Every structure is written in structure tokens, then in C-alpha cells.
Amino acid sequence: MRILIADDHSLFRDGLRSLLTAEGHEVIGEAKNGREAVALAKQLMPDLVLMDLQMPELDGIDATKLIMAQTPEMKVVILTASEEESKLFEAIRSGAQGYLLKNLEAEEFFEMLERAQRGEPALTPALAKKLLQEFARPAESAAPASDIDTLTAREREVLELMVEGVTSNRRLAKRLNLSENTVKFHVRNILDKLRLHNRAEVVGYALRHGILEPPK
Distance between CA 100 and CA 78 in Å, rounded? Predict the structure, then answer.
């Protein structure tokens, strides 16, 4: 996997680069602030951006928003020491594919990166639970009917399974008896129709607006 690291601490970048390289990944660039991260993401087109939150000039949240605006298909995973729930929620709303804490064990860290590469949310169970609890809160107003009504019956089936926790293309394909390419097509349509960036946002949207009930 071709990876761009964005972090303002050079020692951390050095250690992370060594860890990623030893695992067979290619670190194609390093940014010491959010503005550099946006520029390098556009120039180098990495498969994945590992983004710190607290950086000079432009923080990780705003940098992620800009990257997703210019390249919606790019995967950004926040890698931070911040356990603030508000930062987690902001990161996912900005379009991040995942949110990982820097105190993760190496094995779990690489497992999360593989999930992100497959297009799945890169979240530990504890953070995923916090995210679902936040997004499951009653919405203040109903979702725009025009957005919801554009979903086909099959797309709603896919959405329902995603809310239940079935997020990988392989598992969705197996549950629906479809090919993985067909599942990818339906997921992309859902993202486009609801104007969202990733699967975590889709699940949150469905729960927030009462489109589907959260799993029991």
C-alpha cells in the first residue's frame, strides 16, 4: 500500500515509516502540517493518508475535508493521541475512513489499515461503539425525503445490513448472494445519493435520521 504520513513530530514520522516499511508498505511522502498533507495528497495520489489531528497551519480535520473534496475516493485514516469523542465524531463527519489511537498494538494497527484498504471503517470496537451511540441519538429533524427516496430496494437492503454491522464487501456479497463488484456498485450509489464520503457516515446518517433502527 502506498501511504502518505502527515504528522508534525519528525521522530514519530521516522518510527512510523520504519514500522510501515518493515511490514511491506511504501511510504511515498511525509507532511509536517495539514497544508502540506493536502498538497502532497493531490500530487502523489497515495492509497492511504495517515493523518494526525493537531498540526500547525491546518489541522487534521480541515485537511481531511479538503482532501475528500478534491479526491473523494482517497482513504484518510486519523492517527492521533486524542481520545476526545468530539474529535472522533468530527473526523468521521469530515470523511475520514477511520480513527486510530497511537497507543494501538502493531498487530491491531495493521489489521485496521487492511480494513481501510478494503473500504471498511477502521475503528476499534470501543470507538465504533461510541460512534454508533452518538449517531443513534434522535435527529432534530427528518432527513430530506428527496435523498432517502432515491434509494432502490436493493440499496436499502445493503444499507440495512451495514447498520447491522456487515460492512465489508465480501460479507455483504455473501449475505445478499451478489458479486463483490455488484455490492461495490450499490455502496457507491448510496454514497452518491446521500452525498456522503464513507460507510461509517452512511451508518450514522441512517441512524441519525431514523431511516433504520439501530441493532438491538
Answer: 6
